């Protein structure tokens, strides 16, 4: 089978890219041909198709005339459409699978593909088809104001980084894309959590159009000897919606529990200052950690914590933790409760409830034997339900259904 796989980043930027590259490798290992369509970047991995990649644009830093041009490209990228047309002259796909592509690539590439009768699949790493800012999170809280295609609320509430101009662009983008039928014409959406599938249906998509295929993980790449060293860890992007201010509050309520925070992001300095001002000596910021160093950090932890306060999908951080036999404490929001079985392979607690989070941390540290039992149960679940064989079959069945 010939597949075009679309993701605007062709380097390991985050969880979405882990899924993108993982599926690409998985499909290629089964004999399929996967051609990437992406954005140029000096960090990109090598590809013989990079001449078809679109120009690298950082819309966050654009100014002056470039700001207006950038706004137009977000809504409709003529360059991306042209590049896709060129690619289709040298490669004939059976299906096109989209991951993160909005703004730099845009749905303008749907047209050339549909003209060639290529079915479209879109993995929902976020909720962009129903939320202009993709997170359903605005002004420091979960937001569903755009339900019923009331996208004007994005502009009214300045949802995009507090900017009236950027919010206007995202509002116009959504209305135009719906008017042109882009999101309606995607043949299948892959929701990586049942929560995301339910939310898409609630917002007007047909049940037949949205299927649930969770992320997967190759457990053989996450094998470490059990070595519980008595600390908790958060790893990931340091941004407000990740709930890290609540994690600091919980750390203050449980000062005897060492807590490591690995990662970088826009909230990093504010979080460090808050921890310093409050004298949280049990909290240590490690900065960016990756590779074997990160795996060792997770595998030696007594637990990992996912304190998110927005609609998480199917966090790879949870799958990776469980694969490493490390129990997870996760907020009851989005797709997190689908992955963490309370009191079996971790604990769940009411999102934004600092006392409940602190109590979960204390309970986790009380009994090392129970923690080990939870870790073993978590890895068994990953091996059984989130393996690459099952994921591959689900994916191929979906492709064959729409071809």
Automatic annotation (TrEMBL):
Residues 14-220 form the Glycosyltransferase subfamily 4-like N-terminal domain. SUPFAM superfamilies: UDP-Glycosyltransferase/glycogen phosphorylase (SSF53756). GO terms for molecular function: glycosyltransferase activity. Residues 225-380 form the Glycosyl transferase family domain. InterPro entries: Glyco_trans_1, Glyco_trans_4-like_N, Glycosyltransferase_grp1. Pfam families: Glyco_transf_4, Glycos_transf_1. This is Glycosyltransferase. It comes from hydrothermal vent metagenome. The lineage of its organism: unclassified sequences, metagenomes, ecological metagenomes.
């Amino acid at each position: 089978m010939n597949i075009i796989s679309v993701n605007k980043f062709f380097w390991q930027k985050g969880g979405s890219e882990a899924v993108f590259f993982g599926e690409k490798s998985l499909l290629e290992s089964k004999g399929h041909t996967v051609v990437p369509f992406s954005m140029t970047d000096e960090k990109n991995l090598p590809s013989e198709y990079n001449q078809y990649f679109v120009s690298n644009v950082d819309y966050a830093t654009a100014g002056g005339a470039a700001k207006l041009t950038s706004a137009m490209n977000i809504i409709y990228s003529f360059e991306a459409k042209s590049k896709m047309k060129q690619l289709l002259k040298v490669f004939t796909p059976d299906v096109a699978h989209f991951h993160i592509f909005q703004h730099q690539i845009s749905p303008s590439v749907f047209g050339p593909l549909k003209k060639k009768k290529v079915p479209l699949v879109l993995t929902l790493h976020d909720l962009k088809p129903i939320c202009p800012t993709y997170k359903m999170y605005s002004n420091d809280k979960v937001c569903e104001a755009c339900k019923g295609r009331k996208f004007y609320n994005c502009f009214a509430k300045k949802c995009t980084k507090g900017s009236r101009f950027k919010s206007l662009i995202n509002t116009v983008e959504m209305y135009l894309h719906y008017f042109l039928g882009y999101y309606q014409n995607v043949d299948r959406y892959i929701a990586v959590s049942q929560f995301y599938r339910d939310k898409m249906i609630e917002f007007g998509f047909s049940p037949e159009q949205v299927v649930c295929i969770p992320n997967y993980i190759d457990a053989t790449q996450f094998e470490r000897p059990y070595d519980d060293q008595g600390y908790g860890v958060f790893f990931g992007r340091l941004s407000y919606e990740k709930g890290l201010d609540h994690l600091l509050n919980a750390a203050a309520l449980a000062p005897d529990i060492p807590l490591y925070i690995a990662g970088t992001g826009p909230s990093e300095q504010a979080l460090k200052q808050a921890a310093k001002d409050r004298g949280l000596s049990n909290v240590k910021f490690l900065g960016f950690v990756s590779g074997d160093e990160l795996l060792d950090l997770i595998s030696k932890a007594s637990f990992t914590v996912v304190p998110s306060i927005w609609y998480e999908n199917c966090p790879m951080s949870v799958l990776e933790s469980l694969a490493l036999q490390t129990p997870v404490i996760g907020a009851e929001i989005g797709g997190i409760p689908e992955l963490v079985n309370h009191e079996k392979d971790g604990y769940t607690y009411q999102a934004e409830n600092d006392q409940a989070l602190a109590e979960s941390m204390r309970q986790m540290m009380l009994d090392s034997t129970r923690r080990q039992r939870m870790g073993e149960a978590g890895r068994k679940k990953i091996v059984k339900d989130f393996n690459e064989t099952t994921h591959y079959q689900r994916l191929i069945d979906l492709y064959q259904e729409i071809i």
